[in-house]
Amino acid sequence: MRQINIRVAREHISKLINEVEHGVEVVITRRGHTVARLMPVEERPHLSDRSAFRASLPTSSTPSAELIRTSRDEERF
Fold first, then answer.
1. What pTM did the predictor assign?
2. How far, in Å, CA of 67 to CA of 37, rounded?
């Protein structure tokens, strides 16, 4: 983990982004206090096959039509 103050971060943001892309976590500080953290984004699987995504979603015991009706009824008041 690398720690850098905000002024230097502004001057070298491209270099910092390159470091983050290579796995380095960068903490940005202002007056000695942490204000931000740059870290690599977790890779997510491509959703061309949505069946895996759908299988990962929680199931609901209430039918969607009922949820919509309830929501519409609540909006009337």
1. 0.54
2. 39
